[in-house]
């Protein structure tokens, strides 16, 4: 009987592990910088509503890859804060669509501005060569994400 020891197991791919960790940590830091009255789930939904709205709750849940009750609760809280409003579809009165309000647009803009300012400050401490490397890496990551099935 052959035993597999830790010495004979293939090592976990270093690059995928490192990327996962650094992307997770960066996302956490950016969430902290963009602190607002809305949760990360609500901000993500709000950004999608801004980009794709007016949108149905079902379509929003599919885009955000969450269950319908989760998106219903998130949109309810956004609506309570005046960040979105529901409108009845003109063609089918049974369908409601969610759209962003001017207050919602301002909140997103402020959150994005704080996050961008944080990144600008961090990147300013890097050399021009390091910033160029990050620009190339960002382009590669964008390509990786484009290939992902929706």
Give an account of the 3D structure.
The chain is mainly alpha-helical and 150 residues long. The protein has one domain: Winged helix-like DNA-binding domain superfamily/Winged helix DNA-binding domain (Arc Repressor Mutant, subunit A). Helix content is 64%, strand content 8%. The protein has 6 helices and 3 strands, in the order ααβααββαα. Strands 1-3-2 form a 3-stranded antiparallel sheet. β2 and β3 form a beta hairpin. α2 packs across α4 and α3 crosses α4. The relative contact order is 0.10. The model has no long low-confidence stretch (mean pLDDT 89).
Summarize it.
The protein is mostly helical. The chain has helices at residues 14-33, 40-52, 57-64, 68-80, 102-124, 128-146, and strands at 55-56, 84-88, 96-100. It has a single domain, classed as Arc Repressor Mutant, subunit A.
What labels describe this entry?
150 residues, mainly alpha, Arc Repressor Mutant, subunit A, 6 helices, 64% helix, 8% strand
Order of helices and strands: HHEHHEEHH
CATH homology superfamily name: Winged helix-like DNA-binding domain superfamily/Winged helix DNA-binding domain
User: What gross morphology would you assign?
Assistant: globular
CATH third-level topology? Arc Repressor Mutant, subunit A
Quick one: biggest sheet? 3 strands, antiparallel
């Amino acid at each position: 009987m052959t035993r597999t020891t830790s010495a004979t197991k293939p090592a976990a791919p270093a690059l995928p592990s490192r990327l996962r960790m650094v992307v997770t940590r960066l996302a956490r830091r950016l969430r902290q910088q963009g602190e607002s009255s809305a949760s990360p789930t609500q901000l993500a939904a709000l950004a999608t509503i801004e980009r794709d709205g007016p949108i149905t709750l079902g379509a929003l849940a599919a885009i955000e890859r969450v269950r319908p009750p989760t998106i219903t609760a998130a949109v309810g809280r956004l609506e309570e804060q005046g960040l979105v409003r529901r409108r009845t579809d003109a063609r089918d009165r049974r369908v409601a669509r969610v759209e962003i309000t001017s207050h919602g647009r301002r909140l997103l803009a402020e959150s994005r501005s704080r996050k961008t300012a944080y990144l600008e400050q961090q990147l300013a401490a890097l050399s021009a060569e390091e910033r160029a490397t990050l620009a190339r890496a960002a382009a590669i990551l964008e390509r990786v994400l484009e290939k992902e099935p929706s």
